[in-house]
Amino acid sequence: MPSLTQENRVRRFTYWLLIVAGIYTLVPFLALCFFNHPQADDFSFAMRDRALDYLTVFRQYYTNWTGRYFSTITLFRINPMISGSILLYRFYTLVLFFLFCGGLYFMLSTITRVALTKKMAIALSGLFFTLYLLQLPSPSEGFYFFSTYATYQLPNIMLMVMLALLFKFFQTQQTTAKKLYIGLMAVLIVAMVGSNEMALVITFTTIGFVTIVNLKNPKARPYLLVLIIVCVVSCLVAVLAPGNYNRMNEHPNGGKLVWSVVYAGFMTGLSFYRWLLPLLAASIVYISYFGLPLAEKLKNNRAFIVDLRLVALYFLVTIFLMNFAFAWSTGERATPRLENVIYFFFLFGWFYSLQVAIQNYSWVFTTNYSNSPIIPVFALLIFILSVLNIDNNISTAYIDLISGKATAYDKALNHRYASLKGSDCDSCIVAPLPAIPQTIYFADIISGSENSTERTDRIWINNGLASYMSKTAVFLSEPNPPVQDNLTSLRNAGKSTLREKSVIK
């Protein structure tokens, strides 16, 4: 059995390694903020909010398009492209990353304060942040494209803040503090439910789960009843919007109950196949260095003294309902921006379920994990290797930077804006992008040849940019190049460097 000193060294090394992994993950994504540009809906929504007052937008969209009364109708009023500032657009993405990291640390440090030191809480935040960015289905839609992150990522941040406030609510004995927390959570619930359908499902099931768990808690019941009422009313306002049903008419495959149920069940199972492998390695690390200390210190905490079957039901039903909501309304598979939210819940729901399992069966975990550090160290090695894999999101972000793709993308778009503003053309032809940095790229305008053949589904992007630039039409002179895989990008970057050196000589 290893000595206590050796075990402490391993623990300290693990915590610092997880902190370094978190920093390693964050650095390229922050750097890419300085190359970010508006895309697609950013231009069309900016034109909408320039031309129409808020009440007109609310009436038109709530009646004809969507029940998202907070994000699409309200929050988009701060779209930086209304003022036309690319610098502000990039500043927003930086702020978003800091808000996400801050919300994550606030939630974890609040819950683990009595059990973990500050360094341990930072390490745990690094572990979760790395896992999230490692497998995020679409980083561009998660953090760089305003129209999607305002709709889908900000509610995730609000959820983390709400969970921290909910934990504080159960910890305090002061009536004034309880009322304050409930008031803040009610505001967050209204905002989250009105942001998107995925957030609506998560908010409803989470508040419902917490209420069911605390039905026998007379001190909490009246307050939780307030949250339930606020949540139900907000859901009704969002779901019963006439615009939702008008929009469903554009999806002839929507509204098929049996297909939606079968499909949602299949996608729920597929979530484990797609995302579980790195989580398993991280889970072993979590159990040894975070889960067991938390179980020891939070033995009597209501947040974790829960029937594991109820937790598993909450976890699986929430994932199922998120997949069902989109399948029912559109008849299609959830898009990457929606999968971002599903993965967010999958990640944190998995670790909450794991912690509840540790609380309920601590003797099993203690027996298997306390005798030797070999298993968690091996799991840590697997986790770090997955972070360094050439084909994941983190490596892609670094390659987008070092290959020069982000720089070329930035220069090309700046030149495009300048040429459109300086030209008196009505129907304008602009050059394609020289390279596509996958991390920050969502969609671009199409060429005339694409418009006349197979890509007419994206002509709305051209129309949005043309309207924003006061043009009748804007097209690419030829299609954009395909997105290169990471190895190809590195090879091409190396060849380009060698050619430059030979020219200099």
How would you characterize this protein structure?
InterPro entries: DUF6056 (IPR045691). The protein is mostly helical and 505 residues long. The protein folds into 2 domains: 4-388, no CATH class; 408-504, no CATH class. The chain is 72% helix and 2% strand. It contains 21 helices and 2 strands. The protein has helices spanning 4-32, 41-51, 54-64, 86-112, 118-135, 139-144, 146-171, 175-193, 197-213, 221-239, 242-248, 257-297, 308-330, 336-360, 362-369, 374-388, 393-402, 405-422, 448-451, 459-468, 486-504; strands spanning 427-430, 473-476. The chain has a two-stranded parallel sheet with strand order 1-2. α1 (4-32) runs parallel beside α16 (374-388), α1 crosses α17 (393-402) and α9 packs antiparallel against α13. It starts with a helix and ends with a helix.
Features:
single chain; 505 residues; mainly alpha; 2 domains; two-stranded parallel sheet; 21 helices; 2 strands; globular; DUF6056 family protein; DUF6056
